[in-house]
Structures are given as C-alpha cells and as structure tokens.
Task: inverse folding
C-alpha cells in the first residue's frame, strides 16, 4: 500500500525559503542562499535595520517576517535596480531612504506571491496575505498574529547575499498537517521570472515618482510612523 503524502509546517517553511532565494537571486542576478539549519524560536520580531512583515490567512494562518541588515538591504536594492536599467549614480546609498524601503517592500510582495501560489496549488486551499509593511527601525519589536493560532510554531532561517551579507526570515504558523486524499501532490509552480517581469515596471515607475516629488520622499516615512503608532511605539 503506497504511503500517503503529508505536508507539514517544515515543508511549508522550506517552500517559503525557496521562494525567498529564487525571487531575490533572479531579481539581482546574484546567489542568495538559505542555511541548511532551521532555528526554533519562541516569538517573532522585527529587528534592525530594515524589517518587513505580512500576515496570511485562509487554509492556515501565520506571519512572515524578514529582517534585513543595512548592508544586505542596500546590496539587494542596488543590484536589482541596476538589473532594471537604473544608472548606479541615481541609486540611494542609505537603507533609510524611502526608495530602498519601497523597492524592498515590492520584492517582499513578489516573494509572498510566489510562495502563496505554490502552497495554494499544493494544498488545494485558498490563502490570502496582507500588504507587506516595510519599516526602518533601530530597536526590536515583538510581533504577534492577530488571529487564532492552534499550538503556533515559530522558526528562524538565516540567508546570505552574494556578498555574504546576512538577513533573517522568521515564520510563525499553526501546528498542523495536510494529508492528501489522492495519494499524490501536484508540484506545478509559477515561474518567478514572470512575477519579476510583471512587477518590474511598477517598481521603476514608483522609484521615479519618489525621486521627483516631495510627497513621494515622505510617504514611506509617514506610513512607517503611522504603523509604529498603531503598535503603541
């Protein structure tokens, strides 16, 4: 009798790691890799220098956080924008720039879109995500998911950029399993190159707008201040 395929939280985390590595590697034409070890943690946190998070719900609930160091954020941002044809002289040099936060938020959105597409197809379940929030921070912020999690599990995975700058993924979700009734799992996945092509023009247009308007330069900071205020900070 054939074994029945079971999808565990570790399998789902691995797919998320693959989405992060594949989308960022393709976007920057560099080698972004994740560690072979996963760390069990008790809480998920936003940490300096640039933190991004998104909540997802549907077939299962959870939270995704990516904490970028300043060097890793700048490396990814500049490599991606140069791939998109932006002159190096016109790119930001500081991770506190609104332009950097905007571009990294768009890349986070592509990562989650790729991940949710893969998982939704495999689990045959509807999953939705909140709009990713990207914040420039100088202190640690603990996050909790505002939804019902059954025996939540939390994990952290380390990543490295092509220039060996580190950043970290933190992931929390229900402790649950998905068991196939058909004894097989469909692994058809969406091409990340198509995702990058779809979102590329949107990022370029938004970058130009940020560079040429005063409101564009301050919109990301205002949004970050509003979010920090809602968190009571």
Result:
């Amino acid at each position: 009798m054939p074994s029945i395929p079971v999808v565990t939280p570790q399998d789902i985390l691995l797919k998320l790691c693959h989405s992060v590595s594949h989308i960022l590697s393709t976007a920057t034409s560099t080698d972004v890799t994740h560690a072979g070890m996963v760390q069990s943690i008790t809480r998920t946190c936003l940490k300096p220098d640039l933190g991004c998070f998104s909540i997802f719900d549907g077939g299962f609930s959870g939270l995704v956080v990516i904490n970028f160091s300043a060097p890793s954020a700048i490396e990814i941002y500049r490599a991606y924008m140069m791939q998109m044809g932006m002159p190096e002289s016109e790119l930001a040099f500081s991770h506190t720039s609104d332009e950097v936060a905007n571009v990294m938020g768009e890349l986070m959105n592509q990562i989650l879109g790729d991940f949710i597409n893969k998982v939704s197809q495999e689990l045959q379940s509807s999953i939705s995500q909140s709009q990713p929030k990207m914040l420039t921070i100088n202190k640690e912020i603990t996050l909790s998911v505002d939804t019902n999690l059954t025996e939540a599990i939390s994990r952290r995975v380390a990543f490295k950029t092509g220039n060996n700058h580190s950043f970290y993924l933190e992931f929390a979700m229900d402790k649950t399993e998905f068991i196939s009734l058909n004894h097989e799992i469909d692994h058809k996945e969406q091409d990340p190159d198509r995702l990058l092509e779809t979102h590329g023009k949107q990022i370029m247009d938004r970058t130009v707008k940020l560079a040429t308007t005063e409101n564009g330069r301050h919109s990301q900071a205002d949004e970050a201040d509003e979010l920090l205020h809602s968190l009571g900070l």
